[in-house]
């Protein structure tokens, strides 16, 4: 049987300079980015001048002074997550965003550990290690690639044993973008345009990368 998708999640990460105290549920509701009911029912973990963390029924937000992280584990909310990120920084358009990550985390179930180990052998053969170790097995592998689309940045793929699907494999794809001129604090517009323009291609590519690795 082919590996089957067990769980997945999407996240959007911005690096830059932020004032965490802005990013509270009430602010999002006031700006029309979430419903008032969502704001009222949000589970707040941290509200501090250096960090804000809260969760609603469909997304989690973590903000520190140099990083904003939007995340969801519900597939029907992948596009709303993108729209939330775009809407946030269209309002905060003068925020100096420096880097963007469109990230996808996927846990695939496999029938047996032997099947999982055969996949490891396929993508990370043990022969070169046998002269050093009598027994070896893939723990974590990361591969970085140049971007295929002319944008600044890279694509990073990580493979390791899944902690959610047992036996299974975890594959993450970090689609990383950088602003062309890091020394020019022109605000959010460049990276927002990249997020909007590349979202569909990025999400399709991340799933195809995983399928290629799994041999599906």
Helix content range? 25-40%
The number of helical elements comes to 5
How many domains, as an integer? 1
Trace the largest sheet across and list its strands: 2-3-4-5-1-6-9-8-7
Overall pLDDT confidence: 93
Provide the structure class.
alpha+beta
Distance between the termini: 10 Å
Task: Walk me through the structure.
The protein has one domain. The termini are close together. Helix 3 packs antiparallel against helix 5. It has helices at residues 25-30, 36-41, 78-91, 113-123, 189-214, and strands at 4-16, 43-48, 51-55, 60-64, 67-72, 97-109, 140-146, 153-161, 168-178. It is 29% helix and 35% strand. The mean pLDDT is 93. Strand 3 and strand 4 form a beta hairpin. Strands 2-3-4-5-1-6-9-8-7 form a nine-stranded antiparallel sheet. The radius of gyration is 19 Å and the shape is globular.
Task: Summarize the model shown.
The chain contains five helices and nine strands. The chain is of the alpha+beta class and 216 residues long.
List the helices and strands and how they pair.
Layout: E1 4-16, H1 25-30, H2 36-41, E2 43-48, E3 51-55, E4 60-64, E5 67-72, H3 78-91, E6 97-109, H4 113-123, E7 140-146, E8 153-161, E9 168-178, H5 189-214
Antiparallel strand pairs: 1-5, 1-6, 2-3, 3-4, 4-5, 6-9, 7-8, 8-9
Helix pairs in contact: 3-5
């Amino acid at each position: 049987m082919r590996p089957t998708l067990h769980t997945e999640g999407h996240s959007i990460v911005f690096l830059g300079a932020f004032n965490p105290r802005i990013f509270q549920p009430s602010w999002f509701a006031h700006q029309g980015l979430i419903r008032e009911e969502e704001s009222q029912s949000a589970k707040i973990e941290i509200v501090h001048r250096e960090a804000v963390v809260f969760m609603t029924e469909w997304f989690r937000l973590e903000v520190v002074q140099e990083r904003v992280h939007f995340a969801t584990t519900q597939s029907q909310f992948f596009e709303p997550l993108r729209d939330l990120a775009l809407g946030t920084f269209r309002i905060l358009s003068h925020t100096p965003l420096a880097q963007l990550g469109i990230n996808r985390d996927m846990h695939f179930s496999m029938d047996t550990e032997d099947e999982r180990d055969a996949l490891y052998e396929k993508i990370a053969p043990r022969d070169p290690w046998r002269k050093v170790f009598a027994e070896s097995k893939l723990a974590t592998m990361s591969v970085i690639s140049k971007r295929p689309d002319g944008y600044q940045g890279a694509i990073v793929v990580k493979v390791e044993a899944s902690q959610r699907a047992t036996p299974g494999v975890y594959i993450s794809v970090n689609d990383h973008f950088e602003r062309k001129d890091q020394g020019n604090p022109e605000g959010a517009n460049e990276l927002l345009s990249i997020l909007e323009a590349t979202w569909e291609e990025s999400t399709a590519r991340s799933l195809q990368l995983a399928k290629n690795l799994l041999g599906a």
